[in-house]
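Hi R.,

As promised, here are both runs. First protein below:
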Amino acid sequence: MTDATPRHRLEAIYRAAIDAVQPDRAVRAGLDEASLDVHAELHLLAIGKAARTMLASAFEWCAAKGIKPAGGVCISHASEAGRLPAGFVTVRGDHPHPRDGSAAAAALLRAYVETHIADGAQVVVLLSGGTSALIGAPVGALQPDAYRECCEVLLRSGLDIHAHNALRRQLSAWGDGRLASALHAAGARATVLAISDVPGDAPASIGSAPCIATPASDGDNEAILGAARLTDPERSALRQSLGIAAAYPAGEFATIPHRIISSNRIARDAVAAAAAERGLRTVQMPELLTGDAHACGITIAQQLLSYTASASDPVLYCWGGEPVVSIPANAPAGGRMQALALAAAGALQAAGARAGGITILAAGSDGRDGTTDAAGAVIDANTWDAVCGTGGDPAALLNAYDSHSALRRAHSLIPAFASGTNVNDLVIAIVAPVLLA
């Protein structure tokens, strides 16, 4: 692929940024800093969308140090984990909706901790985004159907990831420090190396906090429930499930030290470096992408339009974060980055000739946006009209949460791929000078 067009340049910069945040160097550096006892029995628990690549990097580090891990688990969203050494087990969980696969993964993790990890063992938890769903199972007496319905409701609640996980971790078998409690009960010494997929990199919001206790009061829960876009029956069902889960706290010593080894900030720095190699100056936007994805797309388009008049040379603008889409039940495939992109396309189309120099890429760092076959999309001022030209109604499709089919009509989608990591979403845009009559 050449950088002949703005789209090609943006896609090349995006892929360069993803390459820069691959877990290999970060995991090895994190293990160096962890000061592990090379003589103690070592177990590796890799959970999340980056589990396979993080585990492979840990194997390389161990080989270089002459350490042979006693065993461990690999729980990811991929069906193949590659060949693992003796003592390691692998399973595929479900994402983004926890189902039977996630319940099986949660059970496998429990069985491994209870039967393989003994007093004095050393455990490294390799944690990445997607963990909440991949080992999603109900805590205590909470029934699987009720738990799964709660997860579905939270996904379409419009809550940001911090508020979302503040409730979900209380409902989950391994959330809210319960893995830390289990490891402490086994007598293990543990550390967590985490790839952050949440704005601000708060450990309590990564993977529903399996290794950090985060007690919540009824007042905290009520404040979140009150802010969520829920029906009264949905709010009542969540409140009831939280009440059941409250009988099963994580217990004492439910926190393990965390090291954040990769994040969205590092990805955005990599965007700037890749842009500089292509002769582009980068402006890092200070505000994180949060809130409604449609609103974020419109705001981004309006910001970029305000820069076109002063542009004398092409400039790249970069955002990171994780907006949300409050989708109704049974909505078509979409994805928050595609929703953002289509909303931005509408704002650019409405601006007419002023938008002629703007091209926007919006994509997930994990290589997959929502449950679709796309990582995201690249749009410009012509995208909206391109959808119309195929007989589609982009406004209606946007309102129906069907951004995926709209962007497919315009040939704007970026094909999904397994990135090997997960550090939130990236939006990068080129603003080139436009000569107006």
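And here is the second one, sequence first, then its structure tokens:
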Amino acid sequence: MTAAWDDPRIARGMEAQLRWRRQLLDVSEKPLGWKLAFGGPAAMERLRTNAPLVGFLLQSAILSSGSTLNISNWTKPAAEPEVAVHLGKDLSGNPDRAAAIAAISGLGPAIELADVDHPSDDVEGTLARNIYQRHIVLGSNDAGRAGGNLDDLSCRVLRNVSEVGTFNDPQSLQALTGELIDNVRHVANLLDAFGESLRAGQIIIAGSITPPIWAAPGEEIQFHFSPAPPISIRFAR
């Protein structure tokens, strides 16, 4: 299979994105990790890609669970419940499956807040804009899920009091994102192709487990990722 970065749209978009990241880090920003997006079969078919897109996360993007966020000036705000992969070891390019599993210190919940202010079918432009990333609510790291363990999974996503989705098995959790370990390996390989690498202490948010939740003022999104404590975000009226 052709490598994702052999696609000229991805190559140009990643070069622009990582140049922007380096500029931010050179000023005062601190790295948090990486994000995956558009990894489901339908999304990849629509974009004519063969792997999820990858963006970056910064420490300054973190919001505390229970925060209230003003989205009045956003174009198209979205909340995305995601599995956060916590890395306990560096992971260089071309890792085998065993190395990727060994690098994962645990899993936890995350809610990404994105502003879809650019057409997603422009792959290069979407990457150059860091795939709409604005903020992230990050839950605790469950060390019992080291190695990417998804056994006995129990997840629920709520919008106000209405259930958006329930996930009780690895297959349903990964239906829109692709397989977790393969995605970690993909991030390691993609970054290596552009002179970057995964580092211990970083996270990867592995893509939204539900379709985007188009956020509206006055709403609250909750993500229960048992046994970790639930996390939530509110949108100001």
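A quick note on the second one: The mean pLDDT is 96. Let me know what you think.

Best,
J.
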